[in-house]
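S.,

Sequence below, as promised.
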Amino acid sequence: MENYEKNLIGHINAVAKKRRDDFEECTAKALENPVTISELENIWGSFSCPAVHRSEFSVDDIPLTRAQYENAKKILRDTCDKANVESNKAYNRFHNKAKEKFKDILRNDSFSYKGKNKKEVFNVIFNRAWEEAHGEGLKAVSNKFDDLDDFVNDIFQAANG
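The prediction came back faster than expected:
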């Protein structure tokens, strides 16, 4: 591997790692204390994937032959793509943590079912609400959850007289 290749790969990876580390630190702090769905929704929407983009890096300033230049562009593309796999994992970890925090808020503030199998019933209601409304935001999921929770309670009360 030539020196320019090592330098290019090292630079891209260093930028990507720093961006991921900063992202994970900021999102962890942001998720420490949200207590309402509105706060959590603001947090959810304020972070984007910490990806690196090929356009951020240039090989034009490096004195290269035509073949080396083409190789450098390929290295740039491949290295960014590999770095972004890790960035997507970091973004998904953030979303999973935020979703768990959201579930905790719903479980503690909105879930009113008092019958048997409480955990299982909660999961069924949450998963259905998430499926039907998450594209509209957390507040929409919360509203759908409340509607489904009320419906399940009505059925439970009717069945138990």
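Residues 66-109 form the longest helix (44 residues).

Coffee later?
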